[in-house]
Amino acid sequence: MSFFTILFIAIGLAMDAFAVSIATSLNLVNVSKRQIFRLSFHTGLFQFLMPVIGWYLGFSFSKYISDYDHWVAFVLLALIGGKMVHESFEGREESETEGGNALKKDPTRGLSLLFIAVATSIDALAVGVSLAMLNVNIWYPSAVIGVVTMSLSIIGMKIGEKLGARFGNRMELAGGLILIAIGIKIVIEHIYQ
Predict the structure, then answer these.
(1) Is residue 80 within 8 Å of 112, Cβ to Cβ?
(2) Inter-residue contact 87 to 104 (CB < 8 Å)
(3) How far apart are CA 110 and CA 147, in angstroms?
(4) Confidence of residue 62 (pLDDT cuts 50, 70, 90)
(5) What does each C-alpha distance from 163 to 45, 152, 159, 182, 184 come to in angstroms?
């Protein structure tokens, strides 16, 4: 498998993480280097690990994984997105009553971070199964997928930071709706494949 083939696969897999990174950074008041590192590291790590896990699962489990992977991704993204939508309205109410000093929960920590990393990398599990069927050594493609995802997540966080600083709670609402839309897109793509 050529480098460019692997690169295009990696970019395709990283698009969800890129969009989620934009949406996640919209939820933050000020995006720190630590937050960028945490999100990009975890999305990259999970995008690296999932093809390896899928490769090891191979043919025998692929039918079980493909039956529900899209639903898991949808539920995780819908939960995080719904929480962001709720917090965008909650943040407006608090900022109106407290003069704009509302504190927001950091989605780059704890279960939110884990949900984001898992939800954006589930498709990579199926890619790992496919690579096993093609008898491709998994380590090099997985490394490329992880690095590309990490890089695009950093770029997404920077884009979201600029939009969030400019448009505030409206962008947090948009970010939550984007996460829900990505989840719906994943389900629709799997239904019509």
Answers:
(1) yes
(2) yes
(3) 22
(4) low
(5) 26, 16, 6, 19, 23
What is the secondary structure of 120-183 as a DSSP string? TTHHHHHHHHHHHHTT--SHHHHHHHHHHHHHHHHHHHHHHHHHHHHHTHHHHHHHHHHHHHHH
HSE (CB half, 13 Å, CA atoms) of 99? 0
Task: Kindly state the tokens that stand for 182.
Answer: 């990505």
The per-residue pLDDT for 97 is: 46
**Residue whose pair of structure tokens reads 């490769």 in the numeric block:** 55
On the CB side of 189, CA atoms within 13 Å amount to 13
Nearest to 80 by CA among 19, 11, 153: 19
Token pair for 55: 């490769």
Q: Angle at the Cα of 184 (from 180 to 190), degrees rounded to 5?
A: 150
Helices 3-26, 33-98: axis angle to 10 degrees equals 30
- Rounded distance between C-alpha atoms, residue 152 and residue 159, angstroms: 10
Q: Is 4 exposed, middle or buried (0-12, 13-18, 19+ CB in 10 A)?
A: exposed
Question: Is residue 143 exposed (0-12), middle (13-18) or buried (19+ Cβ within 10 Å)?
Answer: middle
Over the stretch 147-193, which tens digit does the pLDDT of each residue have? 999 999 999 999 988 887 666 666 667 767 877 887 788 788 878 87
Cα atoms found within 13 Å of the Cα of residue 127, Cβ hemisphere only: 26
